[in-house]
Amino acid sequence: MDYGLWLLVGLLIVIALVFLLAGRRKADIRGDDAQVAAPTANAADIAPIPAAPVRAPISEPVASSAPEPVAAAEPVVAPTPIPASPSVAMPAGESDNLLRMKGVGPKLNQQLIDLGVTRYAQIANWTDADIATIDGKLGNFKGRPVRDQWVEQAKYLAAGDFAGFEAKYGKL
Questions:
Q1: How many whole angstroms separate alpha carbon 60 and alpha carbon 63?
Q2: Which range of residues forms the domain containing residue 11?
Q3: Nearest-angstrom CA–CA distance, 100 and 172
């Protein structure tokens, strides 16, 4: 005979032994079927659980007291935004599009509006103290006013010098 045939027969025997031993081991772990635990109590031996007593319904209505008058609440006044710079009053009129400045995206634009910054002229007139005050309120955007040169950008945009802005900072 050929060695390949003997090898195949031996392999089949090994697989059969593994299958039989694995099946027997599971039976040992579960326990024999004959040793299944018998029920400890008969259903007739178990006492029924008594039901909760039923209460009689309330026949007479309960008199309700008159509600106490509520004092009028004081009107809530919305806080006014603090101007970004105490030296620069908030100009009247329509706000500028701060998104045109490099480094200002939608979230940062909304934060600036919430802080009362809406015009290029406001930013152009910021002092170092104003920048430090605003920078402290920018959260994750801290450092942007100095790094992105907002004051210089705002000076170009407030003056309407879009060509100068584009020459220094790129296309709007």
A1: 9
A2: 1-28
A3: 6
What total number of domains does the chain contain?
Answer: 2
In a domain, 39, yes or no: no
pLDDT of residue 49: 78
Who's near 8: CB < 8 A, 6+ residues apart? Answer: none
5 falls within a domain: yes
What mean pLDDT is predicted for residues 12-41?
A: 70
156 vs 102: CA distance, rounded Å: 12
Residue 94: name the closest of 119, 125, 63, 123 by CA.
Answer: 119
CA 31 – CA 21 distance, rounded (Å): 15
Q: Which amino acid is at 72?
A: A
DSSP assignment letter at 99:
G
Tell whether the model's pLDDT for residue 82 goes beyond 70. Answer: no
